[in-house]
């Protein structure tokens, strides 16, 4: 007889997630091996998630929603996954990421830090470990942040990828993070990003002065129905906005910023100079 590990769904969000996978699987009379192929995971992996030994990823949650037909439920596996992550994410950001994975256009503006979607894993790890040393998050939350970022980046690699516009304040590429090797690899990633057919990379130089239209990072998404979602955050708060009367002026401001930013060619040239150690 197979020894089935008992799992208390009340013991934590990961346990609740795993217990729900098992419950829906057993309700359909499936073994773990029956679920493995349609989900694209091994039966061993599914067993580890069901018993709480492995934390589910965003891709796993979305795959489970597809197989079990729960993608549009109020309590989808994707929404449950975001609840697991909520401890290390700002308010509104999990909901934003759900839209980001399906957006047809993404517009990003950042100050001081390379946008997450363009960060190398080494760059992201340095930032997460720094937050741990400051006592802002736990080592476990740091791991979650890095893994979460990888999931976001992977979600954009799809047959019809979104158009991604990135405008960075010059401080993003001037600020050294993690030392020469980390920055060299990060600069290489930015240059590779600019070469993709569905991207536009621009640097907003210091010299534009008061013409810089944003003082905080801003993310703007255009969805398949052409509606626009805006997400902005401060150090401790995030806000997701879908109201057109407040979101459309943000889109206008983004276009105004692009007009005064460097062209992609000039931006790449600046990044290449920094990579060579040239001021």
Characterise the protein shown here.
- The chain is α/β, with parallel strands linked by helices and 279 residues long.
- It has 2 domains: 9-86, lambda repressor-like DNA-binding domains (434 Repressor (Amino-terminal Domain)); 90-275, Endonuclease, Chain A, CATH 3.30.870.
- It has helices at 13-27, 32-39, 43-50, 58-68, 77-85, 93-100, 121-133, 139-155, 171-174, 180-194, 244-260, 264-275; strands at residues 105-110, 163-169, 199-204, 218-222, 228-233, 238-241.
- It has a 6-stranded mixed beta sheet with strand order 3-2-1-4-5-6, with helices on both faces.
Q: Trace the largest sheet across and list its strands.
A: 3-2-1-4-5-6
How many domains would you count in the coordinates?
2
Portion in helices:
40-55%
Low-confidence parts: none
Overall structural class, as computed from helix and strand content, comes to alpha/beta
The oligomeric state is single chain
Shape: globular
Number of distinct helices: 12
Cα separation of the termini: 69 Å
The whole-number mean of residue pLDDT values reads 88
Q: How many strand elements?
A: 6
Q: What string gives the helices and strands in order?
A: HHHHHHEHHEHHEEEEHH
Largest sheet: 6 strands, mixed
CATH domain topology of the largest domain: Endonuclease, Chain A
Query: What portion of residues belong to β-strands?
Result: 5-15%
Assigned CATH architecture of the largest domain: 2-Layer Sandwich
What is the CATH class name of the largest domain? Alpha Beta
Radius of gyration: 21 Å
